[in-house]
Amino acid sequence: MELFQYPYMQRALIGALVIGLAAPALGIYLVQRRLALIGDGVGHVALTGVGAGLLLNRSPVLVAVVVATVGAVTIEMVRARGRTSGDLALALLFYGGIAGGVMLVGLSDSTSANLNAYLFGSLTTISPGDLTTIAVLGAAILVTMLALRPALFAVCHDEEYARVSGLPVRTLNMLLAVATAVTVTIAMRAVGVLLISALMVVPVATAQQVTRGFRSTMAAATALGLFAAGSGVWVAANADTAPGASVVLMAIASFGVVALLGAAWRVLRRRRTPAAAPAPEPHEVVLR
Fold first, then answer.
1. Please, which of 102, 114, 158, 228 could form a disulfide with 110 given CB 3.0 to 4.6 Å?
2. 223-240 b/e with 16+ CB inside 10 Å = b?
3. Rounded to an integer, what distance in angstroms lies between the CA atom of residue 42 and that of residue 47?
4. Residue-wise pLDDT tens for the chain (288 aa)?
């Protein structure tokens, strides 16, 4: 715990905790819409923004927010109009985004180390300005996801029913796309664009094993995300491992533990439940 006396470790912990709360709060809607991998696609587009920021000597995070938002809105428009399949659109995001990012970083004066910091995360290099950006945008994402929970749930669960009910479906879909782009970009410094989808999806998948309702699943997912972020930073500080990878591995470990405990509980419950008495055979029925 002595390492957390240093300001850079305190900033790393606070940044990770903010991402641990915001990412699952958004991820539950993406899982509901079966778009669990869209974070990877938007992350690759954000990488192009990072390269543009490094090339233009601008803030890579802020440029990535703009570029990722444009990419996410574009893919939502393509999906809504049905001009191409969701898989193809995500593939375009994957390949075009990472190719553009690598090319732009190569044209700039930056080294590959700068690119790795965004690919795999670099919590310990978060500056006070980066932390302010992460905290403000993360809080905005969390508040928005909580405040609009009924409407967003309706759109994600049954889009046609939501449209008939009078909800602004297109606006809400665009809001989710923009929120995804913002969450991915602020999480780049925490877990990296290659791992952010795990922090969006894994806590939700873990919570779904032990909860029933949407509200309880959301609460459990954010709690699990908070635990994975805090414990991951602690493990990284003590074992000298990559913080982003440690956070994701803690989230996956939580999933494994909950899955094993759930399976053991189901086996135990089946053993304790008495077997139902077999129905009498036809020849055993006595007529009176």
1. 114
2. ebbbbbbbbbbbbbbeee
3. 9
4. 566 677 777 888 888 889 889 999 999 998 888 777 777 778 888 888 888 888 888 877 788 888 888 888 877 777 666 655 556 666 777 778 778 877 887 787 666 556 677 777 777 777 787 788 888 988 999 999 999 999 998 888 888 888 888 889 888 988 988 898 888 888 887 777 777 888 889 999 999 988 888 889 999 999 999 999 889 888 888 888 888 888 889 999 999 999 898 888 888 888 877 655 555 555 544 444
Distance CA 66, CA 74 (A): 12
